[in-house]
């Protein structure tokens, strides 16, 4: 299934964070060392259809779902499409951006964000390899789309973390989207910072690639390096992470001072939009209440406006995302300033292009317009 959520009054809003999740157990995660600046981009959207979901089925042995419903659902108002003969994909009718440096815009007051921080939460458990490759394939077009959507001179930060909190033996399974491990077993595979498992990108720490923990780019600059950096980093995250996937916890810890040695400087506060994108194919086993992970992100955005400056998005397991037995990830993604823009991770490549593409870039643009620049 595809789920498209839009904001009130016809304005579409999205938060980007990718979390990849898998059902199998992982080996020891590889590590690297350095800090710096990463790059990557998105694709154009395929035609969008909307319809009510029908019930899916799940293999009671594996918990994997078969979606028997239609390809998309929506919450709130759908994006409007522009007229004309272009049938290559949906386009958002966002109107005229109202930025200070836009000579056609309203100049009565300074408006618009000055920075956008994109946090991808990527599942690095077994079976995630193809999903990571599919995300990497659409990222360059996304970069082009977001650069086109944002005003010149906007500062982008792009980073990724994984869903793993344990470096060692992991064996876990789900039935009807519910983990068959006990709460004690789940907690045994959750090592919270500041303790370290020494996994590159684990426990909410940013994944280091080519000497950089995140990539910084001005929208006036050539984005080629960012595209190359992220495309390689997303697949380098690999499939050796623990199968007790914890994307919500990873996103929360990414904003916590306990991960500052690797993450310092990545998330900006005043004048910056934070987008959390999750890429995962399994239920979220984050052991603590969802509110804790939301609170950590909000605490890092107090000067900007807290929840109002955070967006969420993701490619997630379609059947489990709407299953009452697995509410953690959906609750987390729905906790921010606008309905999350999500797609089915097991869908065809066009699902990836739809979610990580022009529509998400347009949602970020809309949110950027709402935010006051730093004083």
UniProtKB/TrEMBL annotation:
PROSITE patterns: PROKAR_LIPOPROTEIN. Residues 29-76 have a biased composition (Low complexity). The keyword Transport does not apply. The keyword Signal applies. Keywords: Signal. Transmembrane segments: none annotated. Gene3D superfamilies: von Willebrand factor, type A domain. Residues 29-108 are annotated as: Disordered. InterPro entries: vWFA_dom_sf (IPR036465). Residues 1-24 form the signal peptide. This is VWFA domain-containing protein. It comes from Nannocystis bainbridge.
